[in-house]
Amino acid sequence: MSFIANLRALHAVDSQVRGIKTRFGNAEGDLKRHQVQLDALLEKRKALEAQARQLQAGVANLELEDKGFKERLDHLRTELNTSSNPRQYNALREELKVVEGKRDGLAERILAQVENLDKLKADMAAGDAPLADRTRLRDLAKAAVDEAKSELGGRLAELEAQRGRAAGLLSEDVRAAFDEAAEQNDGEALAEVQVISLRHREFNCAGCNAELPLDAYSRVAAQREEVVTCLTCGRILYMDVVPEKPAAKKTKAAAKEAALDPDGLG
Ligand SMILES: [Zn+2]
Predict the structure, then answer these.
(1) What CATH number corresponds to the domain at position 125?
(2) Comparing C-alpha atoms, which of 159, 136, 185, 162 is closest to residue 38?
């Protein structure tokens, strides 16, 4: 195989390896994104639950306090009913009023706390559906990663071995140049030289459409085992078909140029 054919063989298998890795990467990226969003919801839920537990404990304490007031009131009422002494009776009535007032205040506090708790429970209930949705999305993303792994894991190993063999046919320098070009161009390491006008010596890189200097064209056209890259995008340039040289015009300038450059290509 020719130098360029070897490079193209490497590119073909390298593209497949990159494609599979991109698919893995995307699936893993999706999973990570869903997991982060789910974690945020779970964190929020945990905070609400902690708040609810705290409120519940607060309500329980207040209810205990209320029980104490109720017992005190029952006791006072019993005493009141059996009191025969007017002075004691009045004192008991006064105390009863005070304790009743305190108990009413407490009832308001309990009510407020219970309302807070209900609101918190409503918030949590409203979060149930998003939490379930997000969990389902995370599970789907995880299934996609597992599927990609089991389906393509073997294929990837096979392709990487193939890639190694294709790379083995090239010298270390060329491999390094290929890897660099591939890295810079999302795997599109190679680009054909487009001849816009041979007569006007206009050539483009088919990868990025930048104009190529005559020197680049000449070196690629020579089809030697030499890496020629596009100065703009960094792709390795190749030509499957090298056009024939135009018939040299015997102008004074051309003759002079031909004398300086026997290849006639710059
Ligand atoms: Zn280019």
Answers:
(1) 1.10.287.1490
(2) 136
Task: Compute, in angstroms, the gap from residue 207 CA to the centroid of ligand 1.
Answer: 5
Is position 46 within any domain?
yes
Flag whether pLDDT at 260 surpasses 70: no
Q: What is the Å distance from ligand 1's center to 189 Cα?
A: 10
Distance CA 236, CA 189 (A): 6
CA of 80 to the centre of ligand 1 (A): 103
The rounded distance, in Å, linking the Cα atoms of 178 and 12 is 12
> What is the Å distance from ligand 1's center to 237 Cα?
8
CA distances from 222 to 9, 90, 237, 240, 242 (A): 20, 121, 12, 12, 9
The whole-angstrom separation of Cα 15 and Cα 11 is 6
pLDDT at 210: 97
What does the pLDDT average to over 26-33?
96
pLDDT of residue 258: 54
> Which helix (H) or strand (E) covers residue 195, if one does?
strand 190-197
Beta-bridge mates of residue 236: 190, 229
What is the overall mean pLDDT for the chain? Answer: 90
Question: Residue 255: which pLDDT band, with cuts at 50, 70 and 90?
Answer: low
CA 238 to ligand 1 center in whole angstroms: 11
The count of structural domains within the chain is 2
Cβ density class 98-120: b for 16+ within 10 Å, e for less: ebeeebeebeeebeebbeebeeb
Judgement on whether residues 155 and 30 belong to the same structural domain of the protein: yes
How far away, in angstroms, is 179 Cα from ligand 1 center? 16
Looking at 135, 168, 201, the residue that finishes a domain is: 168
